[in-house]
Design brief:
Number of strands: 8
Structural class: alpha/beta
Largest sheet: 6 strands, mixed
Number of domains: 2
Distance between the termini: 91 Å
Oligomer: single chain
CATH architecture of the largest domain: 3-Layer(aba) Sandwich
CATH superfamily of the largest domain: von Willebrand factor, type A domain
Number of helices: 10
Order of helices and strands: HHEEEHEHEHHEHEHEHH
CATH class of the largest domain: Alpha Beta
């Protein structure tokens, strides 16, 4: 039975020609303009070049055994180690936190004083990178006894703040364990702790026979071993660490900006594509319906008045659907564009500010 009324003709034609917009409409309505989760900011704990160092917590461990009192180029090993540590801490940007633990600083290096010396490992400073305060505490440390290196590494876990996302331990020593501990096991345990810092070891004028043992400690702690034969070598080491941190922020900034740009452009393309699909569907459906209406009129199935009402219905329906799709497309595109620019500006500002802090400090400003 043929449709009789204008409404019945409209329903009949629509039932035959209506497109399937479910997936495109769902995609447009649930469109997520976010550029996604950012790349993790640089942290001190990474050694690999692609994840170079940043700034969270710096845990310094200083050997205060008697041998650190031996004469070096500009004084003693201890004097030179203190000076270079002060220089490194002074160059850290605002927001850095530091701890300084010394070991072997009590008793003496005789057999009689060994027990007391081997039990000595204390944190003499922890807090912001305040060079004046740290230097004052460091000044009181004198080279004294034996080398409880394992105990110092184990207890360094206490020095890293519980809310630190990462940290790095720097061990400055002129020799190996002399108190019977196992510093390799201690370094491995520290590296596998909940905080998961890495352990870097700087052998300051360490003997050739000691270097393999010290390198094994660094390897167990996921870090690196560096031999420093002079104050200049120590200064070069700290400067390289500092440059690595500065470079890390520059690399992070570039990687994050690239990620945001690519993700943001993908969102803009998706917003355009989904909206365009809905708009094209509305256009195609409307044109087919209006063409069929004209054909039915030409065949005598629709009188002139009914033809006009049915044709107008589909014309208005096409325009309404097209306008809705166009609005969704623009809304999604604008949201994606805005979030892309916002994320880009934030990443650039963060990376640039961190890099500039390091650069300014490096220049001594």
């Amino acid at each position: 039975m043929h449709p009789q009324t204008t409404q019945e003709w409209q329903q009949a034609i629509q039932s035959q020609l209506q497109g399937d917009y479910a997936e495109d409409l769902k995609a447009a309505i649930t469109f997520n303009p976010s550029v996604g989760e950012g790349i993790a900011q640089p942290t001190e704990g990474e050694v690999a070049a692609e994840d170079t160092v940043g700034s969270n917590h710096f845990a310094l461990l200083l050997d205060a055994s008697g041998s650190m009192g031996e004469t070096s180029g500009t004084g003693t090993r201890m004097v030179e180690a203190k000076e270079t540590i002060n220089g490194f801490v002074d160059s850290l940007p605002e927001g850095s936190t530091v701890s300084l633990r010394v070991y072997g600083h009590e008793g003496d290096n005789s057999n009689a004083g060994k027990q007391e010396s081997c039990a000595s490992t204390d944190t003499v400073y922890e807090g912001p990178a305040d060079t004046a305060e740290l230097s004052a505490q460091l000044a009181a440390v004198q080279p004294t006894g034996w080398t409880p290196l394992a105990s110092a590494i184990t207890e360094a876990e206490q020095d890293i703040p519980a809310d630190a996302t990462d940290g790095i331990v720097y061990v400055v020593t002129d020799g190996i364990e002399t108190c019977g501990g196992d510093p390799v096991e201690a370094a491995q345990g520290l590296a596998e702790s909940g905080i998961k810092p890495i352990v870097n070891v700087i052998g300051f004028q360490a003997g050739d026979a000691d270097q393999a043992a010290l390198a094994a400690i660094a390897e167990a702690g996921g870090g690196e071993y560096t031999q420093a034969d002079s104050k200049a070598d120590l200064e070069e080491y700290w400067d390289a660490e500092y440059s690595r941190m500065m470079t890390a922020w520059a690399e992070w900034r570039q990687a994050e900006l690239t990620r945001i740009e690519e993700s943001g452009q993908a969102n803009l393309t998706e917003a355009d594509a989904v909206g365009a699909a809905l708009m094209a569907g509305a256009e195609a459906e409307g044109d087919r319906a209006m063409a069929l209406t004209e054909a039915l009129h030409a065949d005598g199935h629709l009188d002139w008045s009914t033809r006009g009402e049915v044709w107008s219905f589909f014309y208005e329906r096409k325009n309404a659907m097209w306008s809705y799709a166009y609005g969704l497309k623009n809304e999604n595109w604008s949201a994606a564009y805005g979030l892309k620019n916002e994320a880009w500006s934030q990443a650039y500002g963060t990376g640039n500010a961190k890099w500039s802090e390091y650069y300014s400090k490096k220049l001594g400003n």
